[in-house]
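User: Hey, quick favor. My workstation is busy. Could you predict this chain's structure for me?
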Amino acid sequence: MGRDGEKRNFDWQMHYFRAFAILMIMATHYCGVFGFSALDQYFFRSSTIFFLFISGFLCQYLFTSRPQPPLTYYKKKLQHVICPFLIFSVGIGLLRGDSPVSLGFWRDVALGRIQLQYWYIPFVSVLFLVSPLLCRLNNRLLLSVSAISLVIFCAFPVRPAVGFALSWSHTFQLYAYFTVFYLLGFVYCRYKAQMFAAIKKHVAIIAMIAVAATIVMPIDKSHIDAVNAIQKLAIGSLVLIVLDMIKGHKIWILDLLAKHSFTLYFIHLGIFLQTVKYHDLVASRILIPVISELIVFCLYVAAMLLAASLPINKITKRKGV
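Assistant: No problem, here it is.
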């Protein structure tokens, strides 16, 4: 396929959805670092769901466009996901003074414990192992596997503590909670026209579900993880509708965020943690708290986009998530 054909088939809606996803991930960690725990819990927590959905969608989308053998797929994931993950993990660990001869250091690297958000890479790498098989399942089998995953989620709708651990209960709960959203990406890719038409038809109901879930979470905290996931699905559906309206236009800032999303994923939390005193200095000069935090967050995003556009971006490119 020529370059013009690739541009015509490029999915701008999902490309921009990647920009939305990284903003949500950055927002949840921003709230965590700077003390907005309630805002995080009721609006941004579990935004990993969006990354998983995109990863599943892109896996099926790329396979459908250009099928490749499993070994080629694994090689690309090793190059574009695992290698950047190891480079950033080892680099950050050494910068903070960790000993590279310590077994504990390499265990922390492998399990994604060098920074809080790095747990996602070892977690999703296990899903990558079965992804070539998922791409090749017929529609009925894929729907069956997804339905089983949904049943498991409904039976165990509790997200464990943040992190990736090699313990049965923690690992099981992590995959029980998140795997269904990865599979949903595969299903959405295959049935995008039908599913998106259904979303558009029921947009009012979906909006009410998003609002209701947001209201319920502070009231019924015993089911907060399940309601949080429902809220994220509803919000994500509404965002897809908005993005579909602008998919024919190249929005510079969304394109930039999407292209650099994987680099932003790796660097954002470290920058938050290292610049707390500057955050307080800037935020304190703006009298209205909500506006001050929004402005400071936008400044952070702008600064990190600038950093991501430097040669460091060659490590990650945009193929990771």
